[in-house]
Amino acid sequence: MKKTTILFVILYLVIFVSVSWWAYNKYFRNTSAISGETQTISFNKNKTIFYTIENNLYLLNSDNLNKSTNQIGTLRLQSTGEVQTINFDQKNEFIVYSSINPQNASEIWKVDLADNHSEKIFAKEIPGFENYTNFRSPKMSNTERFMVFIAKLSANSGVDDIFLWDIEQNSIENLTKQTIKSKISAICWSGSEQKIYYAAEDTTGSLVSLMDLKAINQNVFVSPDKITRMEATRDRLILSLQDANLTTNLSYILYAKPQSIIPITDLASPKTLVNFDLSSDFKKIIYQVNDSNLKTNDLYLVNSDGNNLLQLSTDGKSYFGVFSPENDKIAFWSNGSGIYTEGLTKDNKQKLLNESKLINKIIIWR
Question: Which of 22, 208, 210, 287 is paired with 79 by a 20 to 30 Å CA distance?
């Protein structure tokens, strides 16, 4: 009897230690900036890809070539949560990004690239933001003097505010001050450093407005669909629209004719658009389509006006297409295989990284 009791106690301790170690690694060990990893990060134009696995942000740069194995190297930058968007300064001195931690709270971080030092700059525990949560969608202006972001008022889950960070003066201003009284689903700069487009949800769909830095609003148009993302070009606003059936498509409006929503894609259930990337010259869009019946994901290339559609993949396992800085290639993840690059005419396909783990997202090719 005593032997049986001792065995049960030992088994219990083994299970307890194993579960505790697993929980520590999953929820605590990988949810803060990496300590002891301070190094200069080299950037080479057309060669740096940022991607995420679980709570980790990685850099894939061919400058990190391992001469002994002849394999492209990767560098883990931070472990602050699942990164959503990244903003760079022009001199590559720092990045600002939003990430979702294991407690499902969205925060905004800044990382100095000279030494990989990280700092949580906008979150509920930061003085002055105690009444807010869900800090998201950071967007730098073209000259990178300003950054706007969205935060949710904690006391009212349906109210968001837009904040302006003057990076040069290191000052923060609440532009909307609870005047919108609804959820803000998307935000982007207009192309100038003085105006911001934002989409606010209401009972009729989404209201898109144009606001200057003095918080003076001009309503642009109303969409019956939910706007999940916006990107401004020189002459048009690219929109990701989700209808009542949860099918997402791409459309655009011309600034000269804001009341006319022109479709780029024409997807219907069970197919839907998952994400997209706009080329830096605004001429092309690469987007991912999920088929929920076939359980497939493929990539498509199209002009930003909806013409010249080209299906880039047919294997059903291609995700997260992004353009190279010079817009002549794409990078994407093939599920179960790794990260590849390919020309815009489906030529010169090259494998950069063997990776069997599930990649959350390829964020940008810098």
Answer: 287
